[in-house]
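User: quick one, sequence for these tokens?
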């Protein structure tokens, strides 16, 4: 049974967010029946295509467009190749684009839908936990430039978000942890109860083989983001809170050339943001320890978060942060925490404090 969620987007238009096991084909067919597109293009990647893309394309009479798997392919060059394929297929302004995959596929396909022929309709069909709880919601789409992540993009609302939680069954544990990092972020900024819901019954670590629990977490984490983006669709205020930990995370990804996953980078970034909050005397003592302990609950007991922290140059991380979209004219801006559920944006954070935080995480200073 799909969850009764929805998002109010541009112009007050509401689109549904459907969550449940095995609903993808039926839900997408209902969107097609209502939209009556001239054709349907499924943009997916080489990992998802054999698992779900080929089955979906055959069921709805669509044609797949495959892209390589990985953040390093979230580029304008990938977008251009998709344009070429759409033109070869004689796509029109009534072509429906379906983004079937994780966050990279959703961002790239959404940007294609926002820009091809000045805009065509699209559907988000996320297949990873991260994409379900975060990337597929709110209408942000785009690609990376060599200088930084998500520097080219648009706001483009989908016709629907279809989160078929059956697809979580084929995710490796590392991808579940990637999504759970975003769930923790949502808990830290708006729903501290989510942090306890991660690991019930006094367990020390999260189980990944409980579909019902994952589905419950998906719905609850989705609602956090829905509430925020409905209040601030174009990120003029509180939507920036969704970037907690991401200034650190995006810089880590760039400096390591995406050798660590986005989820690992976000987990590190959340701890770093908590440490910086404490150093600025914004938060109560012990917050960084609590955040790190919470993050470690989603990792195996013998492979804690710190085992995933790369040995990279802390000064290089700072330089990479300068391309963060939240920074204006070189003025550092970080999303930090006054306490659980109390995020805030802080400007002009001193470089030396950020370097101290990075050193605390065992990154080299030079």
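Assistant:
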């Amino acid at each position: 049974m799909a969850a009764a969620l929805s998002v109010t987007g541009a112009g007050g238009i509401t689109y549904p967010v459907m969550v449940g096991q095995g609903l993808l084909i039926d839900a997408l067919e209902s969107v097609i029946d209502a939209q009556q597109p001239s054709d349907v293009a499924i943009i997916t990647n080489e990992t998802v295509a054999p698992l779900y893309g080929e089955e979906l394309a055959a069921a709805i009479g669509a044609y797949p467009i495959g892209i390589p798997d990985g953040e390093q392919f979230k580029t304008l060059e990938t977008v251009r190749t998709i344009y070429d394929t759409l033109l070869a297929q004689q796509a029109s302004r009534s072509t429906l684009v379906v983004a079937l995959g994780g966050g990279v596929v959703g961002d790239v396909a959404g940007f294609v839908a926002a820009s091809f022929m000045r805009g065509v309709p699209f559907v988000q069909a996320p297949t990873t936990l991260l994409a379900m709880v975060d990337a597929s919601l709110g209408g942000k789409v785009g690609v990376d430039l060599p200088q930084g992540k998500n520097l080219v993009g648009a706001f483009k609302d989908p016709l629907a978000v279809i989160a078929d939680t059956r697809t979580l069954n084929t995710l490796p544990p590392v991808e579940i942890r990637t999504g759970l990092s975003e769930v923790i972020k949502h808990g830290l900024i708006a729903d501290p109860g989510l942090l306890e819901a991660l690991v019930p019954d006094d367990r020390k670590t999260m189980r990944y083989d409980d579909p019902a629990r994952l589905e419950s977490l998906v719905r609850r984490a989705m609602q956090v983001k829905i509430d925020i983006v409905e209040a601030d669709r174009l990120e003029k205020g509180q939507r920036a809170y969704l970037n907690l930990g991401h200034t650190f995370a995006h810089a880590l990804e760039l400096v390591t050339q995406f050798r660590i996953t986005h989820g690992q980078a976000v987990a590190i970034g959340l701890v770093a943001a908590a440490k910086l909050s404490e150093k600025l005397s914004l938060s109560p003592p012990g917050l960084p320890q609590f955040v790190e302990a919470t993050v470690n609950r989603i990792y195996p007991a013998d492979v804690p978060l710190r085992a995933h922290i790369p040995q990279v140059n802390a000064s290089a991380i700072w330089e990479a942060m300068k391309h963060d979209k939240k920074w204006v004219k070189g003025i550092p801006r970080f999303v930090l925490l006054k306490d659980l559920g109390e995020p805030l944006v802080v400007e002009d954070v001193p470089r030396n404090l950020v370097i101290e935080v990075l050193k605390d995480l065992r990154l080299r200073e030079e």
